[in-house]
Structures are given as C-alpha cells and as structure tokens.
Batch of 2 targets.
Target 1
Amino acid sequence: MKKLDPKHWQRIEALLDEALDLAPEAREAHVRKRAEGDEELIAQVLNMLEASKEAETFLDSTNRSDLNKRWRVCLPQLRKMLKPLLSWSVQVPIA
C-alpha cells in the first residue's frame, strides 16, 4: 500500500470529487479511466465511493418521524443541561 503522501491524497480527493459529481452508474468507469491503471488508487477511491453510497442509503432509509420523536424527547434534557451555560450575567462590572 502506498504511503498517503500529500500528492497521493490530492489525487484520491480530486478523483473522488469528480466521481461524486457523476451519476452513480458512471462513477466506476470514470475512476478506472482517470486512474490510468493505478490499481491501488482505483481501490481506494472505489472503497470511498462505496462507503459514501452506504451512508446515503442509511440516511435515506432512516425513519424521519422516529428521529423527530427522539429529538423532541431529547431537546428538553439538552436545554436543561445547557441552561447553566447559557444563562450567565455579569456579577462584577469590568473596568
């Protein structure tokens, strides 16, 4: 495995950005063409694309109403925890 030096990481990042701008069915062919036979680069970018797809699938399949219910339950507790941090006042004038 190549050491991820800055130039290699820039290649990964650029290729990933390009691929994400394309339709999902065109991404792999684009990566293979642009990587010019660098199998390690191809594998790294395709793995990142797969992880991105899995994350999108998870977020799309999440029941939003369930998340909203959980958020409504957690919000009062969060406000209670943050209240001491947010309700401050100046006790002694600064001068």
Target 2
Amino acid sequence: MFDIGKPIWIEGTVVRFDAVNPHVLFTLERELGDGQVERWTVEGSGLRAFTLMGGDRLQPGEVVEVCRFDLKEEVRLETPAGTRAAGLGRGFTGTFS
C-alpha cells in the first residue's frame, strides 16, 4: 500500500493542532525557495499514541519534522485550495522537542 522505500521528509511550522479522535490533525506551513508558502494538513496516529510520543505538546509556532510515504498507486484527494494532505498513519515518524 505505501512505498516505504521512498520517505518524504517535511519540516514546517505548526499553525494549528487538533487533538481529535480517531487521529490527531495538525497543519504545517513551510516556505519554499521562491518565497511562496506551502501548507500541509497532517493526520497523525491516535490521540493516545500521539500523547505517548510527546506530540500532545505541539503548539502553534513550533517547528517540527515529519516523514510520510506516498501510496504505491496514485489516489486523488480533494483538499481545500492551497492545502496538501499527508496521511502519516503507520508510516509516521516525527521529531518533537
């Protein structure tokens, strides 16, 4: 299902964090080389697992890095204009400090 041989790392600033069931959601922004801002909505693990990893301390303004994996087959997702979607699920790796 996921192409774990090609990890994609995303570093960005947290602009929103929602501790909701069944999975936490947070939004990251990162500046691209040309000055444009790219926004990612990230679906993390379940709230309990996310808390055990220290993710419940996420606050807007913090810089975090997450790893995601593309699906082996292309799937179209509808997202709000200017937003990209990254489902982390089992492929979740992150750094929280």
